[in-house]
Write a structure and sequence with these properties.
Elements: H1 3-14, H2 19-46, H3 48-62
Amino acid sequence: MNTAVIKKQIFNDIEILNETKLLDLLNYLNFLKNREENDPTLEIIENDDFYNQLKRGITEKENGQVFDWNSSI
């Protein structure tokens, strides 16, 4: 199915939706637009190794156990 056919079907289907359904659709479209930005973050959080590294880094920062990169300049 090409893009023009898909858009035509979407516009036809939108005509029969009430305001509540249109708002739901708008929210879902915004979710889809923003998902690409959120996917890398979710990928890091869902990966146990990356997540544990993040937790360890946050703990080290809270305990003042981080290297001051500016001091090496």
